[in-house]
Amino acid sequence: MITTLAMIMIKYIDMDHSIGNKYNNLRILQKHGFNVPEFKKVDLINFQDVLSTFVKENNTWDKEKLWQANPETLNSFREKLEVILKKIILQENLDDLVKDIHTEYFAVRSSFFSQEVQEDSINESFAGIGESFLFVDQNKLIEKVIQAYLSLFTSRSLEYFKNRNYDPFDFNVIVFIQKMINCKKSFIIFSKENYKNTDSILISSSYGVGE
Fold it and tell me: What is the CATH number of domain 2-180?
């Protein structure tokens, strides 16, 4: 299975990078017959456009304090951006989006990317930076979708960007909703083990969903 997956990823290296690698990888797996739980991309906004407009209309931000994840500045920034997102993203729109996904619970997942940098790529993983939410009730989708967008601006994500000299304002966020599988066992494959910086493949497994 690992060999097959690697061949697919190499063959389709010219993926559509305008929608983020995480979402794109799921599309490729689904296209090639892998049993991927149903998923839908939230197409209600282009987050980069919303963010750009927001910054232009609120040009009094102390960007240096935001970079330093100053709690007061960061919380104020997130709260004002959340107000705008709530005006655009409505629960009824999300209900319509997931109407064909028959499940009790959903997973809400996010993916970051810019013109130069992709999550889940050869050079960057962004592992654990974008927020994902598991076992989400349908009536809580709007709350978690907005939190997923806002995860571009957390103390953890800003530290990640700062350490790599990336500007978070250059990034877009894709959010998608997926059928939640209450699995008994789960695993993740790292194509390159980075704890000891070797070329070994690392497989990590656990009971449940791996949380």
Answer: 3.30.1490.20
The answer to whether the beta carbons of residues 142 and 52 sit under 8 Å apart is no
Taking 3-state DSSP, the helix, strand and coil percentages for the chain, each rounded to the nearest 5, stand at 40, 15, 40
pLDDT tens profile 84-114? 999 999 999 999 999 999 999 999 999 888 8
**R_g of the chain computed on alpha carbons:** 18
Q: Roughly what angle, to the nearest 10 degrees, separates helices 71-88 and 155-163?
A: 110
Structure tokens at 68: 């330093």
pLDDT digits (tens, 9 = 90+) for 112-131: 888 888 777 777 778 778 89
H-only helix segments in the chain? 2-11, 21-31, 47-57, 63-67, 71-88, 91-97, 141-150, 155-163
Which residue's structure tokens are 């061949």?
A: 7
Domain boundaries, the chain: 2-180, 184-211
Which span out of 20-24, 42-46, 144-148, 163-167 was modeled with the highest average pLDDT?
Answer: 144-148
